[in-house]
Write a structure and sequence with these properties.
about 500 residues, alpha+beta, 10-stranded mixed sheet, 18 helices, 19 strands, about 35% helix
């Protein structure tokens, strides 16, 4: 039976109950356990109060993962739903729901035509549900594309550095066909990432991935052989039965061995997508904060007041960047200054650390100045925002090929934002601007009763605001994703442009 995939999509958008039992695609695990459903956004659903606002909020929170990036609102999103989704015969969007029907994100298809479909618009908008919900939702959506729409191959495109998404696609069995260089095109509307013309310097990369029907069938016979098959008489029923029989005869698909780094990237992505890990990690951070956990560690004799995980990450950055100068605002007891200086000592050369603090207490200054690593340290006392002090730091950084900046002083939104504006221009391409204590945004509102910062007023909110004004930095999500225990989620910013 020949399938008209666009006719199927039209019925999904208008009368999904005629296509799916219960009007939705169940999301199941290998053992048949139902953990959620893909619920189509029909014309009726799109008009429900709050739907456009919900999608607008999700898009705004995740816009850095889209190829077109702009500020959105409820009205604009409603128009996009009407014209861009429901009005496009080759496109469909589903709410990704948990077992109780709570809407946690969305996933869809685009470019649907005979034999072809492309995954589209994956967003995990809310926490909750099964920790593997996105993975099994992708399997369910692919089963729909192959079985109901008759696709011979499903494609997808994603930013190459979106390790969370690409690791899931890798695990499902997508094959990476090619990487395509991209450049940023700016307009009053926002940013669009376009193919790089010949001779242009790429600013990002797009990865194109492909999964064919046969490979999917061999790997996921359990998803298509019996679960969620078309109702008798609906498009795809005859083909589904034939194809399911063929799938059960398949053998496991061979795969090219992955490198150690590729394996690690997959492990990190899976861990970062694990809601249980995220929840328990944050619970642990909040609980140990009451006991001043970070005060327990020293580096070469000086208190460092950081999570050991963040210090390992900083070691990796210093080794990778090999900075000529490291600038740190907020030095406390000087442990981090000693730490950075010791790493520069191991690297050799003439690299040094500049420590800025509004109040370098006498006993801390004495201990730092008497330390063997002091020869690589310059201490500057005063406000990190004092124009004269900023000018002095800029002079020290002048002519340096590789500059790394760490911000860890006053944690209010306005102060950190002003620091970023003052010191971020010093950071060189390929190096990092590291903003510590962004974790404040994720902690309970009463965590800092005696401090001027808290939820809504902290380094993370400053980072978010600053990134709206510049294209020189991107959040390196791989670092906090692999650390999990970190004071700097969204705080490791890589400089990608001069």
């Amino acid at each position: 039976m020949t399938i008209d995939p666009r006719l199927v999509l039209e019925r999904v958008k208008t009368a999904p109950g005629e296509v799916f039992e219960g009007g939705e695609i169940p999301i199941r695990t290998e053992d048949g356990r139902r953990i959620g459903a893909l619920v189509p956004i029909t014309r009726a659903v799109a008009r429900e109060p709050g739907v456009a606002a919900l999608l607008a909020r999700w898009r705004e929170a995740h816009r850095r993962f889209f190829f077109t990036q702009f500020s959105t609102n409820e009205e604009r999103t409603a128009l996009w739903l009407e014209r861009g989704i429901l009005g496009d015969a080759g496109r469909v969007l589903f709410f990704m729901c948990d077992e109780n029907g709570a809407r946690l994100g969305h996933y869809g298809l685009t470019g649907v035509r005979e034999g072809h479909a492309e995954l589209d618009n994956l967003v995990r908008g809310e926490r909750g549900g099964d920790r593997r919900l996105v993975y099994y939702a992708e399997v369910a959506l692919l089963a729909f594309a192959f079985e109901r729409l008759g696709a011979e191959a499903v494609m997808l495109r994603a930013f190459a550095n979106n390790v969370l998404a690409t690791a899931i696609h890798d695990e499902v069995g997508f094959v990476r066909e090619r990487n395509e260089p991209l450049v940023k095109e700016e307009s009053p509307e926002g940013v669009a990432w376009k193919p790089a013309p010949p001779g242009a310097t790429p600013e990002r990369e797009l990865v194109v991935m492909r999964l064919d029907r046969e490979s999917f069938g061999r790997r996921f016979a359990w998803a298509t052989a019996t679960k969620g098959t078309p109702q008798e008489g609906t498009p795809g029923a005859a083909q589904s039965a034939t194809h399911s029989a063929m799938q059960n005869e398949g053998t496991p698909m061979s795969q090219t061995p992955k490198s150690f780094d590729e394996e690690c990237a997959e492990y990190v992505a899976r861990m970062a997508a694990d809601e249980e890990v995220r929840r328990k990690t944050l619970d642990w951070i909040n609980t140990t904060a009451r006991h001043k956990y970070t005060y327990n560690f020293r580096w070469m004799g000086r208190p460092i007041i950081q999570f050991p995980q963040d210090m390992v990450a900083m070691q990796e950055l210093v080794w990778s960047v090999k900075p000529d100068i490291i600038i740190e605002t907020g030095i406390a007891h000087g442990g981090s200054l000693i730490f950075y200086a010791s790493l520069l000592e191991l690297l050799g050369g003439e690299g040094f650390v500049v420590g800025v603090d509004i109040d370098i207490r006498a006993h801390n200054r004495k201990a730092i100045e008497e330390h063997p690593m002091f020869r690589r340290i310059r201490l500057l006392q005063g406000s990190s925002l004092d124009p004269k002090l900023v000018a002095e730091v800029r002079e020290l950084a002048r002519g340096r090929q590789r500059v790394l900046v760490v911000l860890d002083s006053n944690h209010t939104h306005e102060h950190v934002l002003a620091e970023m504006r003052a010191y971020a221009p010093l950071v060189t391409r390929g190096s990092y601007l590291v903003v510590f204590d962004t974790i404040i945004e994720d902690m309970p509102a009463d965590s800092f009763p005696d401090r001027p910062w808290g939820r809504g007023n902290n380094p993370k909110t400053a980072v978010w605001e600053y990134l709206k004004t510049t294209d020189r930095f991107v959040i390196d999500e791989m670092i906090p994703n692999k650390l999990q225990i970190t004071v700097a989620p969204d705080g490791y910013l890589k400089c990608v442009k001069d």
